[in-house]
Amino acid sequence: MAQPALWRLAVLTIWFIGAVSVAEAAEVQGTDAQLLFGNRVLLGTVEDVRSDQARIHTGEGQPRFVPMNVRKAKGLPDLKKGDLVEVTVNDQNLLVDVHKAGESTHHRVVRGQLAGPVDTGHDTAVIRTTNGKEESHLVRPVARSKVASIPVGADVIFLIDELDKIVDVTMGSVESVHQAAELGQQKSPLKGNLSQVAGVILTPLKDNTIVIRTEDGNEHSYEVRSLIQPRLATLSKGDAVVLLVDDEQKVTDIAFVPKK
């Protein structure tokens, strides 16, 4: 059985490393030329660059491959392994644009910490930036559970949309993940009747169901809601996970340590 620290780390990993999955991706609805109705912005990390393509992990089942000429045509610098990027896709899930975090775009990235626990409804969060300035932002529904799970004082990266609302959040480094694990006692309570169940997968997703063995050695079977099934489909027997289970005993979200 894995050490208890693994579970604490796993709880934080999916909400902070990688980025938003297809189900959680920020829906950006604007009137400007670059962000049309139905466009989505995915926060991701460049895993590799070769053959004039960048492989980007966005939390989806498969990585996205972005041609380097998308940026070269605009006179933008090449992507490098480890770069934090914003990938814009249209309503057909096709690439529209890709920017390094912080580049001129209709979204902005803010590095900082939560100044305190988010409000009861998780609708508003106060960020303390790296220069000590405090900013209050509304939180889009797709990001509320993630923001509410951030320990106060952990170094994180917020994605702010054109309406000045938080649409995503991620950790800035491996060190930040460990820092967050140590600060985990200070995180805001999750909204609603949701519980976290840590364990190891015994039977991967099959017929909308997953079976895990919890830390106490017991086996548990859970129905998985269709919204997150693509993410569970990438996991195998023996993987350490933390399931977010609703009051109907159905899995609504999952945390896991990404495979190398």
Q: How would you describe this protein?
A:
The protein is mostly beta strands. Among the domains are: 109-181, Beta Barrel (OB fold (Dihydrolipoamide Acetyltransferase, E2P)); 195-256, Nucleic acid-binding proteins (OB fold (Dihydrolipoamide Acetyltransferase, E2P)), CATH 2.40.50. 13% of the residues lie in helices and 39% in strands. It contains 5 helices and 16 strands. Strands 1, 2, 3, 4, 5 and 6 form a 6-stranded antiparallel beta sheet that branches. A 5-stranded mixed beta barrel has the order 7-8-9-11-10. Helix 1 packs across helix 4. The longest helix is centred in the N-terminal third of the chain and has 13 residues, at 4-16. It is globular and about 55 Å long. The two termini are 20 Å apart.
SSE order and pairing:
Blueprint: H1 4-16, E1 26-27, E2 40-50, E3 53-57, E4 64-67, H2 69-72, E5 84-89, E6 95-100, E7 108-114, E8 124-129, E9 134-139, H3 144-148, E10 156-160, E11 165-171, H4 174-182, E12 195-206, E13 209-214, E14 219-224, H5 229-232, E15 240-245, E16 250-256
Helix pairs in contact: 1-4
Q: What sort of overall outline do the alpha carbons produce when their principal axes are compared?
A: globular
Helix content: 10-25%
How much strand content do the residues show?
35-45%
Task: Give a short account of the largest sheet.
Answer: 6 strands, antiparallel
The CATH homologous superfamily of one domain is called Nucleic acid-binding proteins
Radius of gyration: 18 Å
| Poorly predicted tracts of residues | 1-37, 185-192
Oligomer: single chain
Level-2 CATH architecture of one domain:
Beta Barrel
Q: What is the mean predicted local confidence, pLDDT? A: 72
Give a count of the beta strands, DSSP E runs of length 2 or more.
16
Output the CATH class name of one domain.
Mainly Beta
Write down the secondary-structure element order.
HEEEEHEEEEEHEEHEEEHEE
Distance between the termini: 20 Å
